[in-house]
Amino acid sequence: MRIREARVIVTSPGRNFVTLKIVTDEGVYGIGDATLNGREKAVASYLEDHVCPLLIGRDARRIEDIWQLLYRGAYWRRGPVTMRAIAAVDVALWDIKGKAMGAPLYDLLGGKSRDGVTVYGHANGRDIAETTDAVARYIDLGYHAIRAQSGVPGLDKPYGVSKDKHVYEPADAALASETIWSTPEYLRHTPRLFDALRTSFGEAPLLLHDAHHRLTPQEAAKLAKSLEPYDLFWLEDPTPAENQESFQLIRQHSTTPLAVGEVFNTLWDCKDLIQNQLIDYIRATIVGAGGITHLRRIADFAAVWQVRTGCHGATDLSPVTMGAALHFQSWVPNFGIQEYMPHSAETDAVFPHHYSFADGMLHPGDAPGHGVDIDEALAATYPYTPRQLPIARLRDGSMWNW
Ligand code: GCO
Ligand code: MG
């Protein structure tokens, strides 16, 4: 089964997505997601100019060999652009293999390990009262796990709070918009939020929170410790993780579980965090970390230290990534949880899919491959629209981490 064609489809049904379609000489095709929020065209060019020509004529069944070709063969290893391009090829090839064999992806990986994939939804509001209302709505919808973010008094646009109550799309301007950040207010406010949520909803809901890389290790330790009474499922990205050792300081002070890794590309980014037991959940997902082939290696390595998966699932990851992640998460033995932000109706129409939500879980469906397709005619009606993520500055104008 030879690769006859590989083409890149850039579409913007409300937000930008980069999709790779690989077609074989037997007519079977597969699709993969290569979206890199705010830097989409870089991956489209990497694929079109450098990867697609390399694929033509190769045996589509040799997924591992093609992965190694793209990883070792580029000489320049790792990085968000390279690894997304590799992920798109990898996922399209797994999709082809599944379709050719008439098997859903979870069966190719080893079969289902659970009945469904427990997901967490995003509750947010401009203040504690609004966030409390949003959590109540998710509980009514059947969610067992909810991430809670709230506006902080004195801060106009903190991370995670959107105008739209359901869909959070931070990439809101052609050129990065500016927000103001102040850690002291946030550190005082966040325990109050979780105190209010436990008072309103009791012990049962799994509650999560994302600090979005804003804190120093010492500040992160302080927050993790102050949130202990509220029994979080996880505290995410408490501090940037380039220096993996810095998590030791957080660990020395708190038992609040930690989740890190939505910006990681390879096992090398989380090797020390995992083997030193500095985190509890690894957030790497299919599109960010080199596809199924590489994410499986990360998960197996993490299992040795009882670190569990918590795949990134924001709306900038296309339904193709969600579909593939659900097959992966249905199989992976050390499953933790899956993030779920539903896509807009326009996006769902461009990417018809077999996955569905019921009782706080997503189900991948039983279609061969990953079960997600692209309507190319509809995709062509939504041209690329430049959008970048915001930036954050401190009150004195210094650049900070958004
Ligand atoms: C999350 C993430 C997102 C990111 C977004 C950037 O936990 O879902 O932090 O909200 O900010 O994916 O493109
Ligand atoms: Mg996050």
Protein described:
Helix 5 packs across helix 6 and helix 6 packs parallel to helix 7. This protein folds into two domains: 102 residues, Enolase-like, N-terminal domain (Enolase-like, domain 1, 2-Layer Sandwich), CATH 3.30.390; 259 residues, TIM Barrel. The strands form three sheets. The protein has an eight-stranded parallel beta barrel, surrounded by four helices. 37% of the residues lie in helices and 19% in strands. A hairpin with a 4-residue loop joins strand 2 and strand 3. The chain is built from 13 helices and 16 strands. The mean pLDDT is 97. 50% of the residues are buried. By secondary structure, the protein is of the alpha/beta class. D-gluconic acid binds next to loops.
Keywords:
2 domains, single chain, Enolase-like, domain 1, binds magnesium ion, 402 residues, eight-stranded parallel β-barrel, binds D-gluconic acid, three-stranded antiparallel beta sheet, alpha/beta, 13 helices, 16 strands, TIM Barrel
Give the N-to-C terminal Cα separation: 45 Å
**Count of DSSP helices?**
13
Structural class, please? alpha/beta
**Widest β-sheet, arrangement of strands:** 4-5-7-8-9-10-11-12
Ligands in the model, by name, code or SMILES, are:
D-gluconic acid, magnesium ion
Radius of gyration of CA atoms, rounded to a whole number: 20 Å
Give the CATH H-level superfamily of the largest domain.
Enolase-like C-terminal domain
Helix/strand order: EEEHHHHEHEEHEHEHEHEHEHEHEEHEE
Residue share in β-strands:
15-25%
Fraction of helical residues = 25-40%
Q: How many independent structural domains?
A: 2
Mean model confidence by pLDDT: 97
